[in-house]
Amino acid sequence: MRISELADLTGVSVATIKYYVREGLLSPGRKLSERLADYDDRHVRRLRLLRVLRDVGAVPVGALKALVDATQDRSATVHDMFGKACDALRVETAVPASRDDHTRALADQIVDQAGWTKVRPDAPERDHLADIIKVILDSGLSTDPEGAAAYLPLVDAIAAYELDQIDAGQDRETMMEQMVLGQVVLGEFLLCLRRLAHEHHSALRFAERR
Amino acid sequence: MRISELADLTGVSVATIKYYVREGLLSPGRKLSERLADYDDRHVRRLRLLRVLRDVGAVPVGALKALVDATQDRSATVHDMFGKACDALRVETAVPASRDDHTRALADQIVDQAGWTKVRPDAPERDHLADIIKVILDSGLSTDPEGAAAYLPLVDAIAAYELDQIDAGQDRETMMEQMVLGQVVLGEFLLCLRRLAHEHHSALRFAERR
């Protein structure tokens, strides 16, 4: 298809498509003549991914580039590729880096308790978990980190379900697209469902309480 | 306690404490003399809440004011108070308002399927869910909104657990503080656990796949 058709189909402007090609985020179309190129379904898929990451994830272009680079290193396993993508997607979180040895140990304990044996001992997400635990303890919301136990099987089931949706029979690019979209969009989906469930459960418990 | 002790205990500066009092976010201390006031545990709790909302939730002062106002309308039920707090906490989401009749109907269908009968028919969160469904469908991530079925019992269990942590025997202010902290901090906690679980499940499935 022509670039104008590609723009119509994906909702990404021609100028932005050309920008993504220049930045190496989108492969160039197959040249038909000096001024005409032909684009196919892979371009459509990639553009839809870039659009979602821009609109929903507010992912900066530098991070998009890191995602594409991770896809192109064919010596890496799909798992390593996913890891690099997650690092690139890590938005600067608002949680202050306030962890200490105690909360870092609690974070490791939670990962152990969940049975997530494959999480690297130095995964940055462990530090982030420790920061969040510090906020929870400091806020007085809970003095009992054991409370996490209730979440673990539920979160495990959600993550396992999401990874099961990624079809290992597909090419690396497609697997990457599915993983990244899942990470960003299904995270929003999950929090939205949770707010709806909060409204329901709040009504069940507190509709009479003044 | 003196204001300087309050500042030390909560990590909120004296200047910010005075600002919160001026803005009506914190009740004034009990006057001991023209220049001295006495603060108690309620001030500590409220300041810790305000600090978390500022640091983690990046909640603007206007929204904090709406939260406090919701606490003070004593004719409202706790459920109504929680609803107002949720409205105030709704951050401007990056998901574009792209819903249509079809996705709005799918959103209602998901809420029905979950059994969340107490969610208001005109709850803004239903529209937001429709926007997210539109992004999912447009991105090609899934053509099957039935996929949501797998999430519903898990999210329902998480939300029910969270609401069960709120002790109905406490005063309104404390219940509000617990609800707001849960909404903001446990949402971060949940997403963090999910990323850890993703790393584990990705390793189980794709550590060999190139």
Account of the protein in words:
The structure is a homodimer of 210-residue chains. Chain A contains nine helices and two strands. The first copy, chain A, is an all-alpha fold and 210 residues long. Among the domains of chain A are: 1-55, Multidrug-efflux Transporter Regulator, Chain: A, Domain 2 (Orthogonal Bundle); 93-162, no CATH class. In chain A, 44% of the residues are buried. The mean pLDDT of chain A is 89. At the A-B interface, helix 3, helix 5, helix 6, helix 7 and helix 8 of A face helix 3, helix 5, helix 6, helix 7 and helix 8 of B.
Average pLDDT of chain A works out at: 89
The assigned structural class of chain A equals mainly alpha
What's the gyration radius of chain A in Å?
Answer: 21 Å
Which protein chains make the most extensive interface, counting residues with beta carbons within 8 Å of the other chain's beta carbons? Answer: A-B, 95 and 96 residues
> Could you describe the largest sheet of chain A, including whether it forms a barrel?
2 strands, antiparallel
Shape label of chain A: elongated
Number of helices of chain A: 9
Order of helices and strands of chain A: HHEEHHHHHHH
Portion of residues in helices of chain A? Answer: 55-70%
What oligomeric state is this? homodimer
Beta strands of chain A, count: 2
Low-confidence parts of chain A, pLDDT < 50 over ≥5 residues?
A: none
Terminal CA distance of chain A reads: 62 Å
* Beta-strand content bin of chain A: under 5%
